[in-house]
Amino acid sequence: MRPDTTETARPAVYGMTQLSQDVAQVCRSLLDGHLEEGEGAVGTKLELLQRAPVPVGEQVSLTATVASVAPTTLTAEVLARHRGGIVARGSYELRVVEASRFAAEVAERAQR
How much is the pTM? Predict the structure, then answer.
């Protein structure tokens, strides 16, 4: 974990930015072994409620479960636990994309 140090007067905590990145990584792992050749997944929606602070360096357990599946979309529900208590909860939506088409779109937007 990296500290959220945007305000020096606050204690170092496992902040929303790092939590969001970790949630994305855990949810993407739900698709491991399920994507076809040439497919990728991109996050399209994140809803996250952080309910309690966690000091930097403490163990946090993230659990993601599939809430719904559509032809090109997976929605996962996520719980973050610290010392047995829920410290955050939310959902993360992933869209399955054609990797080459997605890369071309990114390249095109970079040229604008």
Answer: 0.85
